Amino acid sequence: MSNQSEQTATKERSKEEHEEPKMQREEAVNNNQQTSTEENAEVVTRKQQKQKRKQERKQERKQARLLKRRILPIWLRIIIVLVLCAIALAAGLMIGYGVIGDGAPLDILKKETWQHIVDIVKKAK
């Protein structure tokens, strides 16, 4: 009986030894499958992150455009600059004619004063 029990024990050990590598292979395959599923999950999340970043950039651009709205349109700015230039010219003429030239500052706005200046320039030629 001891022979039979030893043979049975040997057969069981050999079965276990053969089954262990099979089990290890199956576990490795399962691990690989889990790893590939995790990698796929990472790829999906990366894509989702990219899309999220794109949407955030679009929203930032829209907000930047809204902030760039001009308070005064360009054509109004040009008109304002021209008016300021005319005021500066008139002020300069008044200071020059009234203070430096010993005349009345408001006389520069009269037509007769300008006619007199034109006559002096034409006679000089």
Key structural traits:
transmembrane, 86% helix, 3 helices, membrane, RNApol_su_b/EpuA, single chain, transmembrane helix, mainly alpha, 125 residues, 2 domains
Structure description:
It is built from three helices and no strands. With 125 residues, it is mostly helical. The longest helix has 66 residues.
Tell me the layout of helices and strands.
Layout: H1 2-67, H2 74-100, H3 111-124
Mean pLDDT level: 79
Shape: rod-shaped
Strand content: under 5%
Secondary structure: number of strands:
0
- SSE string: HHH
Helix content estimate: over 70%
Uncertain regions spanning at least 5 consecutive residues = none
Category from helices, strands and their pairing: mainly alpha
Major sheet summary line: none
Structurally, the number of domains stands at 2
- If helices are DSSP runs of H or I spanning 4 or more residues, what is the number of helices? 3
Query: Cα distance, first to last residue?
Result: 149 Å
Radius of gyration: 49 Å
Sum this structure up briefly:
By secondary structure, the chain is an all-alpha fold. The chain folds into two domains: 1-69; 72-125, no CATH class.
